[in-house]
Amino acid sequence: MQIKSIYKSVAIFILILLSFSATIIYLSSQMIKETLDDSHKTSILNTLKSISPIVKTSIDFSLEGFLERDLNEIVNKNKTILKIIIKDSTGTVITQSNVYADLTKRGFVSTNLQLEVGKLGTIEAYYSDFEENKSSEVYQELVFNLLISIPFLILIAVFLYSSILTLHNKEKEKAYAELKEQMEEEIKSHQKKTNMLFHQSRLASMGEMISNIAHQWRQPLNTISLVLQNLKLGYALNNLDKQKFDNSMEQIDGSLKYMSETITTFRNYYKTNQEAETFTSKEVIDEAVSVVENSLEDLGIKTIIDTQINEQIHGYKNELTQVIVNILGNAKEIFEKRNTANPKIIIKTSKPEYKKLLISIQDNGAGISENIINQIFDPYFTTKHKDQGTGLGLYMSKIIIKDKFKGELKAINIDNGARFDIELNIHKGN
After folding, report:
1. For residues 17 and 40, what is the distance between their CA atoms, to the nearest angstrom?
2. Could you tell me if residue 158 is inside a domain?
3. What is the rounded CA–CA span in Å between residue 364 and residue 349?
4. 3 state SS for 226-291
5. What CA–CA distances, in Å, run from 323 to 10, 225, 367?
6. How far apart are the first and last CA of the chain?
7. What letter does residue 83 receive in the DSSP assignment?
8. How far apart are CA 427 and CA 317, in angstroms?
9. 3-state class (DSSP) for residue 308
10. pLDDT of 125-182, one tens digit each?
11. What are the residues whose beta carbons fall under 8 Å from the beta carbon of 22, sequence distance 6 or more?
């Protein structure tokens, strides 16, 4: 009886020990699985957040082809992700990785993506069972160790748990380092593409510069020509006195000075600013108008400027001048294309909000077609013949206002015309 009691006690002890060990193993396995799942989802979510700037930039630049390639590379390199899908605010797929994957009963994580003002898209990533397999392997190892040595199960579980956490932290640090390097490369690539677009836009505006210089020089060249003819005639008739000669020289000298000032104006306009500066809204508007006023006057275009609200702006003056010149140039082309009667441009400054300055440029050129008004700021979009425009003017103007001035550029239709609104921050000094 005593032996049976001992056996019974031992059996109960073994059962208790097995039950306790099994409970520990079960709880440990569940903890490990939850930890891996959470870290798995967190890692994927961090990946989605880290690529959000790249995704937005690619969509803004209409580079879905490049974006699809980048998504495929991320999926191929990341065993935990089966597929990445980019959707707009309506749930319509914009683009996705084209690596085949069966998404049946697959879980996914998602993060919001800012597409436009007031519109949010999503980036979704469907994850694989890679981490679940890892969890299963760990559980089997724990059971095997239980069969070998029950007393050490708790120690082994604790050791494995700490090892998994350490491994997870190292993998997370490695993934972060890789993503950081990838982001830096993408940022450099994006900057290179943006600089190339700026260069193309600058080259496209060189033709406009030459045309405007020609308009500015036409009148002084005519004046010089007439004065020289009068001098030649006076000399031939022998009635060229000193007073007449001096007056003629003054006229020629004045015309040459005007031509020289024109070159200086355009040279300053096309000079790339190295540092931001502080200037007033009236200064930049007057400078922009001076660049194109002769070409506007030649077409009978009346320009009305109302700059009673004159505030300081901090930024790159030449680039803001370029934006205004681009808008004025577009208005001029619309007037020519539509043969507008009594063409008129009104430039006005106002303060609709505290710390905000609004420069409005409106015309009476019958407005922008409703079917293209939402496309005019897209890169390479133009209604001109391919030999007459690149479609970069308004696109680069919006980029300049957004990136260089932290402002906003909008276009709306008004009665019998269109209006471009440039919203800028008012500089209040240091």
Report:
1. 33
2. yes
3. 18
4. HHHHHHHHHHHCCCCCHHHHHHHHHHHHHHHHHHHHHHHHHHHHCCCCCCCEEEEHHHHHHHHHHH
5. 89, 36, 19
6. 96
7. E
8. 13
9. coil
10. 887 765 555 556 655 666 566 556 555 555 555 565 566 557 667 777 887 788 778 8
11. 146
CA distance 109 to 127: 8
Structural domain including 298 reads: 272-430
Q: Which residue's entry shows tokens 């109302």?
A: 306
Domain finish residue from 155, 190, 225: 190
Looking at the structure of the chain, the number of domains it has is: 2
Element housing 178 (H / E): helix 153-236
User: Residue 307 domain-assigned?
Assistant: yes
- Residues 68-80 have a mean pLDDT of 78
Residue 113: what residue type?
L
What's the rounded mean pLDDT across residues 381-394?
Answer: 54
Helix (H) or strand (E) holding 84: strand 81-87
Token pair for residue 220? 């002084």
196-199, long-range: CB within 8 Å, 24+ apart, which pairs?
197/379, 197/392, 197/395, 197/396, 197/399, 198/396
Sequence-separated contacts (24+) of 134-139 with Cβ below 8 Å = 134/36, 135/29, 135/32, 135/33, 135/36, 135/37, 138/29, 138/32, 138/164, 139/25, 139/29, 139/32
Q: What pTM, to 2 d.p., does this model score?
A: 0.46
Gyration radius (Cα) of the chain, Å: 36
Decide the pairing of beta strands 344-350 and 302-306: parallel
Does residue 72 fall inside a structural domain?
A: yes
Q: How many residues are recorded in the chain?
A: 430
Torsion of CA 352, 356, 361, 367, to 10 degrees: -60
**Domain of residue 148, CATH code:** 3.30.450
Q: What percent of the chain has pLDDT over 90?
A: 17
